Amino acid sequence: MFKCGTPFYINVNGIKLNVYDSAEKCIYKEKLALVFLHGLPGQISNWKYQIAYFEEKYRVIAYDQRGFGKSDKPVKVSIGDYLEDLDKVLENRGLHPENIVLIGHSFGGMVAQAYARIRKIKGLILVGSLVKVKPDIFDKIVWHLPPIFWRKILYTENPLTRRLYRKIFFSPSTPKKVFEEFLRDNKEYLETLPAYVFRYGKYFVDYDASTWLRKIEAPTLIIVGRDDKVTPTSESEILHKLIPNSKLVIIENAGHLVLYEKAKELNRIIDGFIKGLK
């Protein structure tokens, strides 16, 4: 997965973040860098097809956000924590916000758009993002019941989770082999995450970007799978309406895991947007 370097740790206020920077081994003529932010409860490997494709052309920064992947896992988190982490990662890598294209998926899109509100960046790409947090029945179960009632049922591989994950996160058109690949990549990770990490979502219930999205000045590309049930197309349509300099692309036959389902098409769309920024 990593051709141009090896992940390493940086320390942000006592929290170790697992970071990948393709400039460790690969040389780039441009100052431009692509920074990838995964969703909840994601990890760097969610971007494996994007990292492999784009590090051939551009400097790529990807990291496990606090609480996820191989980064430290504090008991409580806030949007402010994630924004500061991003600042510190860029500072550590010698990057200025105006030279980055920030790419966020799902929860990572929330962090990305919040960052674009307070920092001047080169470009913003939101994949399966959202305007407001809308807890569903599974969120409420996880947030309010002891882990013994939901941990094995919802976050270990079993017939129920296979059906749920397939239905919720993927398009009905997605080949079985893509779904199986995602399970292989994430099975051990999800089964070993501390239970409290699955409750992070409760710290963002007041997140509502509708009042400030118009303040985002960066050229913005909004992408969503037509069959996305987690962050439906209606969310991306609102984002498009509220962010002034934005473009909306809906990818057919893809769900919330469009990063896996339509990796080549997604990469092509992102690449075209980046070329248009120069």
**What is the H/E string?**
EEEHEHEHEHHHHEHEHH
Quaternary: single chain
Alpha-beta content class: alpha/beta
Give Rg in angstroms: 18 Å
Percent range for β-strand residues: 15-25%
The CATH topology label is Rossmann fold
How far apart lie the N and C ends?
A: 27 Å
Number of helices: 10
Largest sheet: 8 strands, mixed
**What is the count of structural domains?**
1
Spatial sequence of strands, sheet with the most strands:
1-2-4-3-5-6-7-8
Ranges where pLDDT stays below 50 over 5 or more residues in a row are none
Helicity range: 25-40%
CATH top level class name = Alpha Beta
Care to count the β-strands? 8
Provide mean pLDDT, rounded: 96
CATH architecture verdict: 3-Layer(aba) Sandwich
What is the 3D shape?
globular
Name the CATH homologous superfamily: Alpha/Beta hydrolase fold, catalytic domain
Question: How would you characterize the overall build of this protein?
Answer:
Helix 1 crosses helix 10 and helix 2 packs across helix 3. By secondary structure, the protein is an alpha/beta fold. The chain has a single domain, classed as Alpha/Beta hydrolase fold, catalytic domain (Rossmann fold, 3-Layer(aba) Sandwich), CATH 3.40.50.1820. The model has no long low-confidence stretch (mean pLDDT about 95). An eight-stranded mixed sheet has the order 1-2-4-3-5-6-7-8, with helices on both faces. The chain is globular and about 50 Å long. It starts with 7 loop residues before the first strand and ends with a helix.
